[in-house]
Amino acid sequence: MYDFDTPINRRKTASLKWDVKENELPMWVADMDFQTAPEIREALEKRVAHGVFGYTIIPETWNQAYVNWWEKRHDFSVESDWLVFCTGVVPAISSAVRKLTTPGENVLIQTPVYNIFFNSILNNGRNVLQSPLVYDGKAYHIDFVQLEKDLANPQTTLMILCNPHNPVGKIWDKDTLKQIGALCQKHHVTVLSDEIHCDLTAPGKEYVPFAAASEVCKDISVSLWAPTKTFNIAGLQTASIMAANPVLRHKMWRGLNTDEVAEPNAFAVDAAIAAFTKGEGWLDALREYIDQNKQMVKQFLQKELPQISIVSLDATYLLWLDCHQITEDSVELAQFIREKTGLYLSDGVEYGGDGNYFLRLNVACPKKTVEEGLKRFKEGVTLYIQEG
To answer: Cα–Cα distances in Å, from 225 out to 101, 108, 180, 202, 296?
Structure first.
């Protein structure tokens, strides 16, 4: 019913991802090469046909679309007034850092993690406190002794949680989230939970909203939700914050409005409503397709490049590739592969922690693109080993 195999030519369309040399194959930034759901395109076409694009308010149908989606897909009951519109998850993160902390305080992040977290913290005069995840050679976990030490620092006032975790593909279980919440409450730290990848779990896998893990978690947190990553509509700038705690919600509302990121463009509301009311079938088909791509990569590496492995297949369409056996410098490796083969991957260093041993690969693209990417990857890694 839905076509994910037909390539869409994105060159010369002002695409951040595809603004590369003609011979290069970009498989780096978290941006899918699929057209969004036809149900969303239909809603946008209807909006365009109206022809008037004036100032837009947030109708109750927008709130209800989120409420119904989280109830049905994630078994979490949300009240309509807990939601506040914002133009994107990243603007909301920066607003939260400015509104919920003061200059010079620590904002804790669990590295390796989404690189823009660093920007939102440092650009606003706060300190990045890396509380590294522990990698055992197969998976990542939290060192709770270290985490509590970092949270107990009196300068630590905010923790940005990535749930599910980008780039390591980790789905945090309920007990882990409850433990995080209890420690943050103990040490008076607010949690900002970035859940933009929550709908991109593997078939049969489900994430737990941080606020759903316990009453404590609900009370001390602000969650960031959006249809943008899930439905490949990031350019439409539509997202929301969810806060059950009225004080936190008011602070975020004030921060978003002060920063002028609380008003929608003419298409943001309609796209979100269409995604959350009509996009379920498309999403389920997408998850199956992406999972097939992940399995293809896993089997290819096991056969052709056994010295490289995938950390997790559970969440996101981004694969965290363990290159411990061939490099301690993923920047050098990524640059080498790009120069020799044209394959453009993300180096792991920009995500902090132990990222110098990892590369990040985006598989949200047609199977033929994945196949071409793997061919180039093998060529680049083989040459790198030979020349090393």
So the answer is: 21, 20, 20, 18, 30
